[in-house]
Amino acid sequence: MSQAAQYGTSSQMDGLISYVIRGWPGWQVILTSLLVLMTYDQFMYIKRKGSIAGPSFKIPFMGPFLQAIHPKFDSYLAQWASGPLSCVSVFHKFVVLASDRDIAHKVFKSPGYVKPCLVPIATDIMGPNAWVFLQGRAHAEFRRGLTRLFTNKALSTYLPIQEKVYSDYFSRFVAGTQANGGKPTKFMSFFREINCALSCRTFFGDYISQDAVKRIADDCIFYLVTAALELVNVPLSMYIPFTKPWAGKRTADAVQAEFAKCAAACKANMASGAEPTCIVDQWVLHMMESKKYHERIAAGEENVTKPTNLIREFTNEEIGQTMFTFLFASQDASSNVLHRLRDENLSVRGGDRNRPFELTMYDFLTYTNAVIKELLRHRPPVIFVPYVATKPFPVTPDYTVPKGAMIVPSCYPALHDPVAYPNPDSFDPERWITGDAESKTENWLVFGAGAHDCLARKYVPLTMAHMVGKAVLELDWEHHATERSEEIRVFATLFPMDECPLTFTERR
């Protein structure tokens, strides 16, 4: 057949289809298009699912979106128990969940196949150039500079400002109980605020105002931004006014702008010769030392001592954005335990319960550290870490994650593995002292693994030891348990469903 004949036949076919469609009522065209799209959506789900666990069919288009709006922890447990790999699909976004410890390690350590995404909308809310989303050399450049901010020497400079935060908020805890007439008060909002204040002050010291800290605690990390960063959102919802993604984006931009102002104030202060007292001070000091080194080399000087942290100069906006990602990442026993904690913390302070915490005390807090490790294992602050496949990823010999799909390695199952941690649902600090929990390093996924593991793996236990030690020495409290105290609410991290009703009094 000639090319002209072929063209004529094609044109005739197109004309015939157009004629048929023009003859249909409008509702019939819409219905047919909808059926075609539903069939395609279902076909692609089944194709991507392959042999792994998951529903045989999905709810057209949205999948389990309604369940994702208010996720239930029991649903995650059921999903993890369904198989080492399982899947869901929401608004045509295919998500693979990995509950197997070894598969989780493989995902964490395969930057050639995956990159962190938190959730699909996170790059829009936090900014596509945020360092946590970078790969390769760009990521390594940021990480090299940030790692030196968490050495023991650097961490010791943050302790005095953290001591002030604890003193301030512990007084507020007592005052909150008094204001409520000594009756139990839901303290989760207080705990969210102290966590946020601790992070803001550690990052920016006195460069950030208390009003700004309060606004950020109320409006940012634990509410608007956290609510926006759901695993899957309605497509394009970030551009629809008053939706959660729209509010989250506006809030994130405002907080990053506030942090950029703090960075500018820090640079001016450090240029005057001030001593570093917070994380940004340390970071800017390293920038200044690096700049001076490069200037001396460029001037032809010889035998110039190279700084321990040779980095480029980061802009105020880059600093603000980086501290914002840190802020988001910093989200969240028997009487015998309490007595042992008090005795140990009083001992390392030489019997003076008002003595401020010092870095040298940390290594002598054996039982306190065991309690902290058990807290992080029993109720880990992160239960999974979403990644997106940048190309087809053969995670097992039998299954390849499609390009563009999310792959979500889970931390919780490894931390509750009964083989590694007998009676995993029991809170037992002794497993870290007389047991062999310390040797189960492959299961210790609290801080992830691989190139994007958490920089704060030393900072978090130190901060918790500081807070716990000061609290047990200065406060008495009573937990007024309810029938929902052991129910878990998932909101970025894990919370008690009853918002933790407590009463606090000052120890005499």
From TrEMBL:
InterPro entries tied to this protein: Cyt_P450, Cyt_P450_B, Cyt_P450_sf
Source superkingdom: Eukaryota
SUPFAM superfamilies (alphabetical): Cytochrome P450
Listed GO MF terms: heme binding; iron ion binding; monooxygenase activity; oxidoreductase activity, acting on paired donors, with incorporation or reduction of molecular oxygen
GO biological process, one term: sterol metabolic process
Segments crossing the lipid bilayer: 20-40
Protein name: Cytochrome P450
Cofactors named for this entry: heme
